[in-house]
Amino acid sequence: MRPSRPLLRTLPLAGLVLALGLGVAPATASDLLDGSERPGPDLAVVPGAPVPQAITAPVPLVTGTGKVGETLSVLDPVWDGLLDDTVLQWTRGGVPIPGATSLDHVVTSADVGEELVLTIRALLLGLEVGSVSTAPVLGALGDAPEVSVAPALSGLARAGRRLVVDGPTWSEVTATSAYQWLRDGEPIDGATSAVYAVLPRDVGHDLSVAATSAWAGHATAVATSDAVTARQAPAKVSARLLSSRVTRATRARLRVGVVARGVPTHGGRVLVLDGGRTLAGTRLRATDAGRATLRLPRLAAGRHVLVVRYTGNTGVAASSVRVLVRVARR
Question: DSSP code of 30?
């Protein structure tokens, strides 16, 4: 008889059980007359040997919140019978997660909104004798990043100029930002880049930008810059006489130009004043491209310091320039 060896495997076979190394005599030819395949040298036929029995274990407790980035952990359950191995598998929405075969699982962005379950199968001699699954844990968004440095604006808050946002800095270095510019706290349609061109309609209103964090699998955070008040663009007015010599009998013509950086000047009026008296005036049209020619009335002989005044429009501030006109007697 062979010396006894540790129990390695038990399998039901044609109403018998084949045992490996049980300390019994090897099977004889008559033992195998039922047509079974002859056992190897370490196999013996043991009539009436017990088949492995089913076992159970309490439902394991899962620790962890299910948020992205956190770890779900399960304690190995205590079974009420014999086993020699366990097989573990996490599932996401009922589908096995590749490689997730331990008691711990780090929640990823792919798990958000899905039920996460760990199933533990108990094995004895290669046969499954029990199975238990955890209660499902719903994958959830991870916590939003915190604001380390708030967003800040640079540039001039004037019509026709640009504002640029810098930052913010988030506590998570991989988090990025999406921008939304605000006018008096309300979103400006289409203004979603890091640069904003100040419009005439912004004048007199507070401009700021809201930065929303973007971090895969995590909730969003919003950081808002300090507000700046938009102002009108300054205008530059130029004026020159088209006549080299003016007399009492002639009516001088004055060429006026009004420009502002990045903002049209049409809609504003151009007035020519002599002291408190208005000599001429016109309203700039879009087709004028900021230029106008005004014909002055006849002036008395002598020296006249005329004021050419631009009254401004929504986005451009009022401005003026002086022009010296000498009127000869003849």
Answer: G
Tokens coding 24 = 């019994």
Structure tokens of 313? 């429009």
**Two domains, one topology: 62-138 and 147-229:** yes
The domain ranges of the chain are 10-46, 62-138, 147-229, 236-328
Query: What does CATH list as the number for 147-229?
Result: 2.60.40.2700
- pLDDT, tens digit (0-9, with 9 covering 90-100), for 161-177: 999 999 999 999 999 99
CA atoms of 54 and 26, how far apart (whole Å): 29
Per-residue pLDDT tens over the stretch 282-328:
999 999 999 999 999 999 999 999 999 999 999 999 999 999 999 99
> Tokens for 97?
């997660």
Q: Tell me the CA distances in angstroms from 112 to 66, 95, 100, one per residue in order.
A: 8, 14, 16
**What is the SS3 assignment for 286?**
helix
Q: Domain 62-138 belongs to what topology?
A: Immunoglobulin-like (2.60.40)
pLDDT at residue number 16: 34
Identity of residue 262:
G
7 alpha-carbon distance from chain centroid: 59
Helix or strand or coil: residue 288?
Answer: helix
Contact 135, 62 (CB under 8 A): yes
37 vs 189: which has the higher pLDDT: 189
Q: Which amino acid is at 19?
A: A
Q: How many CB atoms lie within 10 A of CB 261?
A: 14
Q: Which CATH superfamily is domain 236-328 in?
A: C2 domain (2.60.40.150)
State the average pLDDT for the chain: 88
- Find the mean pLDDT for residues 7-25: 38
Q: How far apart are CA 205 and CA 160, in angstroms?
A: 15
